[in-house]
Amino acid sequence: MEKRSFARRPPLWACLVQLVCAVVLCAWAPARAQSGQAPVTSQHIEIINQTFAREGIVAGRVERDPYGRVVLKGDYADEQEVDRAFSLAQVVVGIRWVSPVTPESIRVKAWERRLGNLFARSSVIQPPARSDGAPGPIRNRYAVVVGVGQFRFGIQPLEFAARDAMNFYQFLTDPGRGQFPAGNVTFLTDENATRSNVAIALDRIQRVATEDDLVVVYMSSHGSPPDKRGAVNIVTHDTEVKPRERIWHTSINEEMLRQFVDGVRARRLVMVLDTCYSNGAYRAVPGFLPPGGKSLGAGDNEGYGLSNDYGRRLIGSKDLVLESDAPARSSAKSAGGAAVEPWGRVLIGASGSGEQSWESDRLRSSIFTYYLVDGLNRHNGSLQQAFNYAKPRVASHVKQEKGADIDQNPQAMSTVPDWDMPLTRRSR
Predict the structure, then answer these.
(1) What pTM was estimated for this model as a whole?
(2) Would you say 373 and 350 are in contact if contact means Cβ atoms under 8 Å apart?
(3) For residue 35, what are the contacts with CB-CB under 8 A and spacing of at least 6?
(4) What confidence category does residue 331 fall into, taking pLDDT thresholds of 50, 70 and 90?
(5) Per-state percent for the chain, helix, strand, coil, to nearest 5
(6) What domains appear along the chain, each with residue ranges and CATH number?
(7) Distance of alpha carbon 168 from alpha carbon 160, whole angstroms
């Protein structure tokens, strides 16, 4: 069975800053067909432009970009109209053939006003100072654990998402393993895992966690189609799918998570996202997928997981350390000569940017979560060691159970080279 296939709203000008600063997703750009021709034709362009006119998007249009993808052009009234246009284009040609939106390609009056206000404020408002030094030993531990397998509005159920969340929760709160105080862990599954409840849980940690604390966020669910920035959002129990662009407004989106990452004071933050987009999650939703149920030229196993650009935007580092680049663990010491416990912001995803995350009937679990928790048990809660244990086993198991041509490669990225934070309490 395929898995996913994968509050408080920030100021509107913050969305613009992310758009201006985000690198357009080169990894998301599909390769041209071997014949040298992309499958998007002039007829597709005409259909999309006619659909825009019929839906009241009077000044917006689409063209083909240098990769042969559909790209939005023209003028748009607001961000909601951009989302509607982007969604309509995806329904015609599929998600892989619609280019992420940049301010250079379109004009949005609201964005222009926000940019002017941002520049006006920047001369008088200084950003808050943040400590660059290592924090002290871990003081308190907090977590939010979410698993969504049942969905209110017709999205395909996930058989093991709530079970995966329970297994992760049990590891964290077990007195012999994670030793997270149960009162410090919010556990939400299925009908309790609404967008509002998740936002409340994240806000609570923002209020109570301090610099020397450890914060862990785990989410297991379906993902949304990539939005106009190329981000795959995390679907909650009450995420809406009609009209189609509502899925981005009613899921756990990048703005919500970025606001949480920016606002939490804890210098040790771990986010584990067992989620990705898959066409199979939405086949029962009328009008959600292109004719045929997939992108032009795409296979049945099309999916989108965690991209490096999304990670850079989310955890906020230009020089992000990718798992494949991380050196062996160092023995950093404080000014007093004592060993410094690893710290930093870490983002772990169940699959790569062009892949799905899979559930296993054999394991009765998400393949990724099964091996990650197994690795945590085997390595006394050491995060980096658990990930390194899980990654090759996930890739091998997926090929054995799902097919030799199926890839799933978990991804990890961090703001520091040594991110082997212990998820178990250790003696000092």
Answers:
(1) 0.87
(2) no
(3) none
(4) very low
(5) 35, 15, 50
(6) 12-122 (3.30.1340.30), 141-331+338-414 (3.40.50.1460)
(7) 12
Q: Given CA atoms 145, 149, 150, 152 in this order, what sign does their dihedral have?
A: positive
How confident is the prediction for the chain on average, in pLDDT?
Answer: 85
Whether the Cβ atoms of residue 275 and residue 143 lie closer than 8 Å to each other: no
pLDDT of residue 7: 38
Using left for φ > 0, alpha for ψ between -120 and 50, and beta otherwise, residue 130 falls in beta
Instruction: Give the span between the Cα atoms of 322 and 346, in whole angstroms.
Output: 10
Residue with the bigger pLDDT between 319 and 123: it is 319
How many angstroms separate the first and last alpha carbons of the chain? 44
Range with the poorest average pLDDT among 33-42, 74-83, 182-191, 343-352: 33-42
Instruction: Report the alpha-carbon distance of residue 317 to residue 229 in Å, rounded.
Output: 17
pLDDT (0 to 100) of residue 320: 76
Q: pLDDT at position 25, please?
A: 38
CA distances from 21 to 24, 111, 199, 221 (A): 9, 14, 25, 28
Q: Residue 111 has what pLDDT?
A: 75
- Categorize the per-residue pLDDT at 322 as very low, low, confident or very high, splitting at 50, 70 and 90: confident
H helix runs in 22-160, sequence order? 42-54, 79-93, 109-122
- Identity of residue 24: V
Length of the chain: 428
Torsion angle defined by CA atoms of residues 26, 244, 203 and 315, in that order, rounded to the nearest 10 degrees:
0
Cβ-in-10-Å burial (0-12, 13-18, 19+) of 345 comes to: buried
CA distance readout (Å), 281 to 115, 224, 307, 356, 407 = 37, 9, 20, 11, 18
Q: Is 52:88 a contact under the CB 8 Å cutoff? A: yes
CB 97 within 8 A of CB 103: no
pLDDT of amino acid 33: 41
The answer, yes or no, to whether residue 156 has pLDDT greater than 50, is: yes
Strand partners, 397: none
